[in-house]
Amino acid sequence: MKLEQAIGLVIRKHRTVEKISQFKLAELTGFDRSFISLLERGRRVPTVKTIFIISEHLNIPPGQLIEEVHQLVESEIME
After folding, report:
1. Cα dihedral sign, 5-22-12-48
2. Is 6 helix (H, G, I), strand (E, B) or coil?
3. Which is nearest to 32 in space by CA: 22, 18, 41, 46?
4. What is the pLDDT of residues 19-62, one digit of tens each?
5. Can you tell me the distance from the alpha carbon of 53 to that of 57, in angstroms, rounded to the nearest whole number?
6. CB 68 within 8 A of CB 5
7. How far is it, in rounded angstroms, from Cα 75 to Cα 31?
8. 19, burial (CB in 10 Å: exposed 0-12, middle 13-18, buried 19+)
9. Which pairs with CB-CB distance under 8 Å and at least 24 residues apart come from 20-25?
10. Chain Cα centroid distance, residue 44
């Protein structure tokens, strides 16, 4: 799995858990809804600042988001 895809999956997972739509997350973060969609589909790579902003509104520490991405990427390498 590519890094971009793993980031997208983790963001989508936490957004869904928080019951927040892409539109609402975009509104909360100040990003465009299409940008959130591109992130979730692995079409864009977020900056560190973007990860901090998104994780704040998903109620998870940025480090946890990164760790979950790392675990997804590592699990693909090990298979």
Report:
1. positive
2. helix
3. 22
4. 999 999 999 999 999 999 999 999 999 999 999 999 999 999 99
5. 7
6. no
7. 30
8. exposed
9. 20/57, 20/58, 25/54, 25/57, 25/58
10. 10
The structure tokens 């609402």 sit at: 24
Residue with tokens 């090990």: 78
pTM of the predicted model as reported, rounded to 2 decimal places: 0.91
Tokens of 70: 């790392």
For tokens 């940025």, the residue is 62
How is the chain split among helix, strand and coil, in percent rounded to 5? 75, 0, 25
Residues 25/15, Cβ–Cβ less than 8 Å: yes
At 52, the amino acid letter reads F
